[in-house]
Design brief:
- This protein is mainly alpha-helical.
- The protein is built from 18 helices and no strands.
- The N and C termini lie far apart (56 Å).
- The longest helix is centred in the last third of the chain and has 25 residues.
Length: 317
């Protein structure tokens, strides 16, 4: 697949020069971008990758804490970067480095509107969901996981630097019917998915990851796209329908539930149960304040009550 062409379609010529001067866009550590590029070369050695990470003390410390955490329960303590990379493998190492580097860059910008812990918790839930969908679609689960985890990564920065605008959206009654991206396009002439994709491209992250970010608000219709319908981009777009701080209602879940009729392998409650279980295993102490399964069950109860009401009305006529 020509990901570079799809990336260019997603960006549509957008440049960061369109951003208001008061928006202080984050900088990704050089070690992260270099590691992301070099680790995609199958001929690169772990020794070279280790040397890249060792230039960044913060990444080195976080990596060693991660591999020695109770989540992995390593038999022997891992004491250096090379051992850590060998333990995780190239794919998992790349995922860790990209996520950790981007999260650190974003957390450096305190948001007055978004609770950072809740924000990253919600994104982790979406990432696990996207990975499960990618497995159903028989596409790359690693890229789907990363794409979903990072789909909204710029929102803490944007909502802080453009606080009054985003506060207006949150407090508006229309926020229950108008998508955040629609509000952004009307107010600014861009939205966070396009700016996020543009930033990711500038950081030289993989083109398919840039596309996941740039197309994540395409909804279930993306499944009919001849290029993207069975790709990690589609898995990311479906994960974007899960409830979050800017869209807390169950409308997105209701849309996902419609897939059960025509996609036998897709069972929303079964997926939700799997996502909640995996979250507990890998959240590393981040509490899941809003498990997915109870929300899906609430949706099922609402649909059942609606059906019962319809039957009762029909019986009375």
């Amino acid at each position: 697949m020509d990901w570079a062409a799809i990336r260019d379609d997603a960006l549509g010529g957008l440049t960061l020069s369109l951003m208001p001067p008061k928006v202080q866009l984050p900088a990704l550590p050089y070690a992260v971008t270099l590691f992301a590029q070099r680790s995609r070369d199958e001929s690169v050695s772990l020794q070279e990758l280790a040397k890249i990470l060792e230039t960044d003390a913060g990444l080195t410390i976080q990596l060693l804490k991660y591999v020695n955490s109770s989540f992995f329960a390593a038999k022997n303590k891992i004491v250096n970067v090379l051992q850590a990379l060998a333990f995780l493998g190239c794919h998992n190492s790349r995922r860790f480095v990209i996520v950790t580097g981007m999260e650190a860059a974003i957390r450096a910008h305190n948001s007055k509107l978004i609770n950072q812990n809740a924000f990253w918790s919600t994104n982790l839930q979406k990432a696990i969901f996207a990975r499960e969908i990618a497995l159903l679609l028989e596409t790359d689960p690693e890229i789907a996981f990363l794409g979903a985890l990072l789909q909204d990564y710029l929102l803490p920065v944007l909502t802080n630097d453009l606080y009054d605008d985003y506060l207006e959206f949150v407090q508006s009654q229309d926020s229950t019917t108008i998508k955040l991206s629609e509000f952004e396009q009307a107010r600014f002439g861009w939205d966070h998915e396009l700016v996020g994709a543009c930033m990711a491209h500038g950081w030289k992250l993989p083109d398919e990851l840039v596309c996941c970010i740039g197309y994540h608000h395409r909804g279930i219709e993306i499944l009919t796209d001849p290029r993207l319908g069975r790709s990690p981009v589609a898995a990311t777009a479906l994960s974007a329908l899960l409830p979050d701080e800017f869209c807390p209602d169950l409308h997105g879940l209701a849309l996902l539930a419609t897939l059960e009729r025509d996609w036998p392998a897709f069972n929303l409650e079964r997926l939700a149960e799997s996502v909640d279980g995996q979250y507990l295993e890998m959240s590393l102490g981040i509490q899941n304040a809003f498990p997915l399964l109870p929300r899906c069950q609430s949706l099922g109860n609402e649909r059942s009550a609606g059906s019962d009401a319809t039957l009762a009305a029909a019986a009375s006529t």
